[in-house]
Amino acid sequence: MIYFDNAATTELNESVLDSYLQVSRKYYGNPSSLHSKGEEANSLLKQSRKQIASLMAVEPEEIFFTSGGTEGDNWAIKGTAIEKVEFGKHIISTVIEHPAVIKSLDQLEKLGWDVTYLSVDAEGRIDIEELKESIRKDTVLVSIMAVNNEMGSIQPLTEIGKVLEAYPTIHFHVDAVQAVGKLDLHLAESRIDIAVFSGHKFHAPKGTGFVYLKKGRQLAPLMSGGGQENGMRSGTENVPGNVALAKALRILLDQSAEKRRELNRLKRELTDYLSIFDKVTLFTPENSAPHIVCFGVHNIRGEIIVHALEKVGIFVSTTSACSSKRKTKTPTVQDMGYSKNEAESAVRISLSHYNTLEEVEQFKDVFNAVYHQMKEIE
To answer: Which residues does the UniProt record annotate as the domain Aminotransferase class V (predicted)?
Structure first.
Protein backbone atom coordinates (compact mmCIF):
# COMPACT_ATOMS: atom_id res chain seq x y z
CA MET A 1 0.00 0.00 0.00
CA ILE A 2 1.25 3.47 -0.94
CA TYR A 3 -0.46 6.44 0.70
CA PHE A 4 -0.13 9.59 -1.42
CA ASP A 5 -3.04 11.58 0.05
CA ASN A 6 -1.31 13.42 2.89
CA ALA A 7 -2.89 16.80 2.14
CA ALA A 8 -6.21 15.20 3.12
CA THR A 9 -4.92 13.62 6.32
CA THR A 10 -1.81 11.86 7.57
CA GLU A 11 -0.98 8.61 9.29
CA LEU A 12 -0.83 8.99 13.07
CA ASN A 13 2.77 8.76 14.28
CA GLU A 14 3.24 5.70 16.53
CA SER A 15 5.12 7.52 19.29
CA VAL A 16 2.55 10.32 19.19
CA LEU A 17 -0.20 7.74 19.61
CA ASP A 18 1.69 6.21 22.54
CA SER A 19 1.83 9.61 24.25
CA TYR A 20 -1.86 10.17 23.59
CA LEU A 21 -2.81 6.83 25.14
CA GLN A 22 -0.49 7.27 28.14
CA VAL A 23 -1.92 10.71 28.97
CA SER A 24 -5.49 9.47 28.43
CA ARG A 25 -4.98 6.64 30.91
CA LYS A 26 -2.95 8.42 33.57
CA TYR A 27 -3.73 12.15 33.41
CA TYR A 28 -7.48 12.17 32.95
CA GLY A 29 -8.28 14.99 35.36
CA ASN A 30 -10.05 18.16 34.29
CA PRO A 31 -7.41 20.94 34.05
CA SER A 32 -9.85 23.33 35.75
CA SER A 33 -10.21 21.13 38.84
CA LEU A 34 -8.42 22.25 42.00
CA HIS A 35 -7.33 18.79 43.15
CA SER A 36 -4.06 17.10 42.24
CA LYS A 37 -5.51 15.23 39.24
CA GLY A 38 -6.62 18.54 37.79
CA GLU A 39 -3.29 20.18 38.55
CA GLU A 40 -1.43 17.34 36.79
CA ALA A 41 -3.56 17.77 33.68
CA ASN A 42 -3.20 21.54 33.77
CA SER A 43 0.57 21.23 34.06
CA LEU A 44 0.68 19.05 30.93
CA LEU A 45 -1.52 21.54 29.10
CA LYS A 46 0.83 24.39 30.00
CA GLN A 47 3.87 22.36 28.94
CA SER A 48 2.26 21.56 25.59
CA ARG A 49 1.40 25.20 24.94
CA LYS A 50 4.91 26.28 25.91
CA GLN A 51 6.48 23.66 23.64
CA ILE A 52 4.38 24.67 20.63
CA ALA A 53 5.15 28.34 21.25
CA SER A 54 8.87 27.56 21.43
CA LEU A 55 8.74 25.53 18.20
CA MET A 56 6.90 28.36 16.43
CA ALA A 57 9.17 31.03 18.02
CA VAL A 58 6.24 32.91 19.58
CA GLU A 59 4.90 33.50 23.11
CA PRO A 60 2.79 30.86 24.94
CA GLU A 61 0.07 33.48 25.42
CA GLU A 62 -0.26 33.64 21.61
CA ILE A 63 -1.17 29.94 21.24
CA PHE A 64 -4.77 28.76 21.57
CA PHE A 65 -5.77 25.11 21.25
CA THR A 66 -8.63 24.21 18.88
CA SER A 67 -10.11 21.13 17.23
CA GLY A 68 -8.37 21.80 13.91
CA GLY A 69 -8.30 23.90 10.78
CA THR A 70 -12.02 24.32 10.19
CA GLU A 71 -12.64 25.63 13.70
CA GLY A 72 -9.59 27.86 13.51
CA ASP A 73 -10.61 29.44 10.20
CA ASN A 74 -14.19 29.95 11.40
CA TRP A 75 -12.93 31.59 14.58
CA ALA A 76 -10.45 33.84 12.77
CA ILE A 77 -13.05 35.11 10.31
CA LYS A 78 -16.20 35.30 12.42
CA GLY A 79 -14.31 36.35 15.54
CA THR A 80 -12.76 39.26 13.64
CA ALA A 81 -16.10 40.22 12.11
CA ILE A 82 -17.80 40.32 15.51
CA GLU A 83 -14.91 42.10 17.21
CA LYS A 84 -14.54 44.78 14.53
CA VAL A 85 -18.12 45.23 13.29
CA GLU A 86 -18.17 48.84 14.50
CA PHE A 87 -15.12 49.65 12.36
CA GLY A 88 -16.30 48.13 9.07
CA LYS A 89 -17.89 45.20 7.30
CA HIS A 90 -15.55 44.60 4.38
CA ILE A 91 -13.33 41.51 4.02
CA ILE A 92 -10.80 40.55 1.35
CA SER A 93 -10.04 36.93 0.46
CA THR A 94 -9.25 34.83 -2.63
CA VAL A 95 -11.20 32.55 -4.96
CA ILE A 96 -9.09 29.49 -4.04
CA GLU A 97 -9.47 29.38 -0.26
CA HIS A 98 -10.42 26.26 1.69
CA PRO A 99 -14.19 25.69 2.10
CA ALA A 100 -13.86 26.52 5.82
CA VAL A 101 -12.98 30.06 4.76
CA ILE A 102 -15.36 30.36 1.80
CA LYS A 103 -18.37 29.05 3.72
CA SER A 104 -17.62 31.33 6.68
CA LEU A 105 -17.53 34.29 4.31
CA ASP A 106 -20.79 33.11 2.72
CA GLN A 107 -22.46 33.30 6.13
CA LEU A 108 -21.14 36.79 6.79
CA GLU A 109 -22.30 38.03 3.39
CA LYS A 110 -25.82 36.87 4.22
CA LEU A 111 -25.57 38.96 7.40
CA GLY A 112 -24.54 42.10 5.54
CA TRP A 113 -20.76 41.91 5.20
CA ASP A 114 -19.17 42.70 1.85
CA VAL A 115 -16.47 40.31 0.60
CA THR A 116 -14.01 40.95 -2.22
CA TYR A 117 -12.54 37.79 -3.75
CA LEU A 118 -9.13 38.28 -5.37
CA SER A 119 -8.43 36.32 -8.55
CA VAL A 120 -5.27 34.25 -9.04
CA ASP A 121 -2.87 33.85 -11.95
CA ALA A 122 -1.75 30.67 -13.73
CA GLU A 123 0.47 29.85 -10.72
CA GLY A 124 -2.38 30.27 -8.25
CA ARG A 125 -0.97 33.50 -6.80
CA ILE A 126 -2.79 36.74 -6.17
CA ASP A 127 -1.87 40.04 -7.80
CA ILE A 128 -0.50 42.44 -5.18
CA GLU A 129 -1.81 45.42 -7.15
CA GLU A 130 -5.33 43.96 -7.07
CA LEU A 131 -5.00 43.60 -3.30
CA LYS A 132 -3.94 47.24 -2.96
CA GLU A 133 -6.86 48.40 -5.10
CA SER A 134 -9.33 46.30 -3.08
CA ILE A 135 -8.54 47.79 0.34
CA ARG A 136 -11.20 50.21 1.56
CA LYS A 137 -11.73 52.39 4.60
CA ASP A 138 -14.11 49.78 6.02
CA THR A 139 -11.82 46.76 5.39
CA VAL A 140 -11.31 44.88 8.67
CA LEU A 141 -9.84 41.54 7.53
CA VAL A 142 -7.62 40.07 4.82
CA SER A 143 -7.85 36.26 4.75
CA ILE A 144 -5.37 34.51 2.43
CA MET A 145 -4.04 30.96 2.72
CA ALA A 146 -0.31 30.25 2.80
CA VAL A 147 -0.37 27.10 0.63
CA ASN A 148 -3.28 25.94 -1.50
CA ASN A 149 -4.38 22.45 -0.51
CA GLU A 150 -5.10 21.36 -4.09
CA MET A 151 -2.32 22.86 -6.20
CA GLY A 152 0.41 23.60 -3.66
CA SER A 153 0.64 27.20 -4.86
CA ILE A 154 2.30 29.55 -2.36
CA GLN A 155 0.95 33.03 -1.72
CA PRO A 156 3.37 35.97 -1.38
CA LEU A 157 2.77 36.44 2.34
CA THR A 158 5.72 38.78 2.87
CA GLU A 159 4.58 41.10 0.07
CA ILE A 160 1.00 41.00 1.37
CA GLY A 161 2.32 41.85 4.82
CA LYS A 162 4.23 44.84 3.46
CA VAL A 163 1.03 46.19 1.89
CA LEU A 164 -0.84 45.75 5.16
CA GLU A 165 1.83 47.57 7.17
CA ALA A 166 0.12 50.75 6.01
CA TYR A 167 -3.18 49.50 7.47
CA PRO A 168 -2.49 48.53 11.10
CA THR A 169 -6.18 48.12 11.98
CA ILE A 170 -6.75 45.36 9.40
CA HIS A 171 -6.42 41.80 10.70
CA PHE A 172 -4.31 39.50 8.48
CA HIS A 173 -5.50 35.88 8.76
CA VAL A 174 -3.53 33.03 7.17
CA ASP A 175 -4.77 29.46 6.81
CA ALA A 176 -1.39 27.76 7.36
CA VAL A 177 -2.71 24.19 7.52
CA GLN A 178 -0.69 23.04 4.48
CA ALA A 179 2.32 25.24 5.27
CA VAL A 180 3.62 23.94 8.60
CA GLY A 181 6.87 22.08 8.05
CA LYS A 182 6.80 23.10 4.37
CA LEU A 183 7.43 26.86 4.64
CA ASP A 184 9.32 29.10 7.06
CA LEU A 185 6.56 31.32 8.43
CA HIS A 186 8.51 33.44 10.96
CA LEU A 187 5.28 34.44 12.67
CA ALA A 188 6.74 36.74 15.30
CA GLU A 189 8.50 38.94 12.73
CA SER A 190 5.70 38.80 10.16
CA ARG A 191 2.62 40.98 9.65
CA ILE A 192 0.45 37.87 10.16
CA ASP A 193 -2.03 38.42 12.99
CA ILE A 194 -3.81 35.05 12.98
CA ALA A 195 -2.47 31.72 11.71
CA VAL A 196 -4.41 28.46 11.76
CA PHE A 197 -2.92 24.95 12.09
CA SER A 198 -4.40 21.44 12.08
CA GLY A 199 -2.80 18.46 13.84
CA HIS A 200 -4.01 15.68 11.58
CA LYS A 201 -2.08 17.23 8.68
CA PHE A 202 1.22 16.50 10.45
CA HIS A 203 0.69 13.06 12.01
CA ALA A 204 -1.12 14.20 15.18
CA PRO A 205 -4.60 12.95 16.18
CA LYS A 206 -7.66 14.24 14.38
CA GLY A 207 -9.58 16.83 16.37
CA THR A 208 -6.44 18.73 17.39
CA GLY A 209 -5.03 22.04 16.24
CA PHE A 210 -4.01 25.49 17.34
CA VAL A 211 -4.37 29.14 16.42
CA TYR A 212 -1.61 31.72 16.66
CA LEU A 213 -3.06 35.10 17.66
CA LYS A 214 -0.51 37.90 17.72
CA LYS A 215 -0.26 39.67 21.08
CA GLY A 216 -2.39 42.80 21.10
CA ARG A 217 -4.87 41.56 18.51
CA GLN A 218 -8.43 40.86 19.62
CA LEU A 219 -10.85 38.15 18.49
CA ALA A 220 -14.35 37.58 19.78
CA PRO A 221 -14.70 34.01 21.10
CA LEU A 222 -17.06 31.72 19.21
CA MET A 223 -17.58 29.28 22.08
CA SER A 224 -18.87 30.63 25.38
CA GLY A 225 -18.87 28.79 28.68
CA GLY A 226 -16.30 28.07 31.35
CA GLY A 227 -13.69 30.50 30.07
CA GLN A 228 -10.95 28.03 29.12
CA GLU A 229 -8.10 29.12 26.84
CA ASN A 230 -7.94 32.47 28.61
CA GLY A 231 -11.61 33.04 27.89
CA MET A 232 -11.13 32.61 24.14
CA ARG A 233 -12.39 29.04 23.66
CA SER A 234 -14.60 27.56 26.34
CA GLY A 235 -14.91 23.82 26.82
CA THR A 236 -12.90 21.23 28.74
CA GLU A 237 -9.48 21.01 27.13
CA ASN A 238 -8.33 17.97 25.17
CA VAL A 239 -5.20 17.34 27.22
CA PRO A 240 -4.14 14.03 25.58
CA GLY A 241 -4.74 15.48 22.13
CA ASN A 242 -2.80 18.65 22.87
CA VAL A 243 0.15 16.73 24.34
CA ALA A 244 0.17 14.56 21.20
CA LEU A 245 -0.14 17.66 19.02
CA ALA A 246 2.94 19.26 20.58
CA LYS A 247 4.95 16.06 20.18
CA ALA A 248 3.93 15.64 16.53
CA LEU A 249 4.93 19.24 15.81
CA ARG A 250 8.32 18.71 17.45
CA ILE A 251 8.92 15.59 15.35
CA LEU A 252 7.81 17.40 12.19
CA LEU A 253 10.08 20.39 12.73
CA ASP A 254 13.11 18.34 13.80
CA GLN A 255 15.51 18.54 10.83
CA SER A 256 12.72 20.18 8.83
CA ALA A 257 15.11 21.59 6.20
CA GLU A 258 16.43 18.10 5.46
CA LYS A 259 12.91 16.68 5.29
CA ARG A 260 11.86 19.49 2.96
CA ARG A 261 14.77 18.75 0.63
CA GLU A 262 13.73 15.10 0.48
CA LEU A 263 10.12 16.04 -0.27
CA ASN A 264 11.32 18.30 -3.07
CA ARG A 265 13.41 15.44 -4.46
CA LEU A 266 10.40 13.10 -4.49
CA LYS A 267 8.23 15.81 -6.02
CA ARG A 268 10.79 16.43 -8.77
CA GLU A 269 10.94 12.70 -9.53
CA LEU A 270 7.16 12.70 -9.94
CA THR A 271 6.88 15.86 -12.03
CA ASP A 272 9.79 14.91 -14.31
CA TYR A 273 8.21 11.51 -14.90
CA LEU A 274 4.66 12.74 -15.47
CA SER A 275 5.85 15.39 -17.91
CA ILE A 276 7.03 12.76 -20.42
CA PHE A 277 3.45 11.68 -21.16
CA ASP A 278 1.97 13.66 -24.03
CA LYS A 279 -1.58 13.61 -22.64
CA VAL A 280 -0.61 14.63 -19.09
CA THR A 281 -0.94 18.25 -17.96
CA LEU A 282 0.92 19.35 -14.84
CA PHE A 283 -1.24 21.87 -12.98
CA THR A 284 1.02 22.41 -9.97
CA PRO A 285 3.17 25.51 -10.57
CA GLU A 286 6.96 25.36 -10.59
CA ASN A 287 7.50 27.36 -7.40
CA SER A 288 5.10 25.53 -5.12
CA ALA A 289 5.01 23.61 -1.85
CA PRO A 290 7.24 20.53 -1.77
CA HIS A 291 4.52 18.00 -0.98
CA ILE A 292 1.81 18.50 -3.62
CA VAL A 293 1.69 17.45 -7.29
CA CYS A 294 -1.52 18.06 -9.23
CA PHE A 295 -1.91 16.74 -12.77
CA GLY A 296 -4.52 15.54 -15.24
CA VAL A 297 -4.78 13.09 -18.13
CA HIS A 298 -6.48 14.61 -21.17
CA ASN A 299 -10.17 13.66 -21.47
CA ILE A 300 -10.00 11.27 -18.48
CA ARG A 301 -11.92 12.30 -15.37
CA GLY A 302 -9.79 12.42 -12.24
CA GLU A 303 -11.85 9.89 -10.31
CA ILE A 304 -11.18 7.26 -13.00
CA ILE A 305 -7.44 7.59 -12.41
CA VAL A 306 -7.98 7.60 -8.63
CA HIS A 307 -9.93 4.33 -8.68
CA ALA A 308 -7.55 2.69 -11.16
CA LEU A 309 -4.62 3.43 -8.84
CA GLU A 310 -6.60 2.38 -5.77
CA LYS A 311 -7.13 -1.08 -7.26
CA VAL A 312 -3.38 -1.66 -7.07
CA GLY A 313 -2.97 -0.12 -3.62
CA ILE A 314 -1.97 3.47 -4.42
CA PHE A 315 -4.10 6.14 -2.75
CA VAL A 316 -4.34 9.61 -4.31
CA SER A 317 -7.27 12.04 -4.62
CA THR A 318 -9.20 14.29 -6.95
CA THR A 319 -9.48 18.00 -6.28
CA SER A 320 -12.36 20.44 -5.96
CA ALA A 321 -12.94 23.59 -3.94
CA CYS A 322 -15.81 25.91 -3.21
CA SER A 323 -14.71 29.27 -4.51
CA SER A 324 -15.59 32.55 -6.23
CA LYS A 325 -18.58 34.83 -5.97
CA ARG A 326 -20.65 32.27 -7.88
CA LYS A 327 -20.96 30.16 -4.71
CA THR A 328 -20.71 26.99 -6.83
CA LYS A 329 -18.16 24.20 -6.67
CA THR A 330 -15.46 25.05 -9.18
CA PRO A 331 -12.04 23.43 -9.06
CA THR A 332 -9.07 25.59 -8.18
CA VAL A 333 -7.60 24.40 -11.48
CA GLN A 334 -10.35 26.32 -13.29
CA ASP A 335 -9.73 29.44 -11.21
CA MET A 336 -6.13 29.31 -12.49
CA GLY A 337 -7.29 29.60 -16.10
CA TYR A 338 -7.72 26.01 -17.21
CA SER A 339 -10.88 24.72 -18.91
CA LYS A 340 -13.70 22.89 -17.16
CA ASN A 341 -12.69 19.70 -18.96
CA GLU A 342 -9.10 20.05 -17.77
CA ALA A 343 -10.25 20.81 -14.23
CA GLU A 344 -12.35 17.65 -14.14
CA SER A 345 -9.26 15.60 -15.00
CA ALA A 346 -7.30 16.83 -11.97
CA VAL A 347 -5.60 14.30 -9.69
CA ARG A 348 -3.60 15.25 -6.59
CA ILE A 349 -0.60 13.42 -5.16
CA SER A 350 0.39 14.72 -1.72
CA LEU A 351 3.45 13.50 0.14
CA SER A 352 4.71 13.29 3.70
CA HIS A 353 8.21 12.66 5.03
CA TYR A 354 7.17 9.02 5.52
CA ASN A 355 7.02 8.51 1.75
CA THR A 356 10.08 7.10 0.01
CA LEU A 357 11.82 7.09 -3.36
CA GLU A 358 10.98 3.39 -3.62
CA GLU A 359 7.28 4.24 -3.41
CA VAL A 360 7.68 6.87 -6.11
CA GLU A 361 9.37 4.30 -8.36
CA GLN A 362 6.51 1.87 -7.76
CA PHE A 363 4.03 4.62 -8.64
CA LYS A 364 5.86 5.24 -11.92
CA ASP A 365 5.51 1.60 -12.98
CA VAL A 366 1.84 1.47 -12.05
CA PHE A 367 0.96 4.82 -13.62
CA ASN A 368 2.62 3.84 -16.89
CA ALA A 369 0.32 0.82 -17.12
CA VAL A 370 -2.77 2.80 -16.07
CA TYR A 371 -1.99 5.59 -18.54
CA HIS A 372 -1.73 3.28 -21.54
CA GLN A 373 -4.85 1.44 -20.43
CA MET A 374 -6.71 4.78 -20.32
CA LYS A 375 -5.43 5.71 -23.78
CA GLU A 376 -6.96 2.51 -25.15
CA ILE A 377 -10.30 3.34 -23.53
CA GLU A 378 -10.17 6.87 -24.92
So the answer is: 2-363
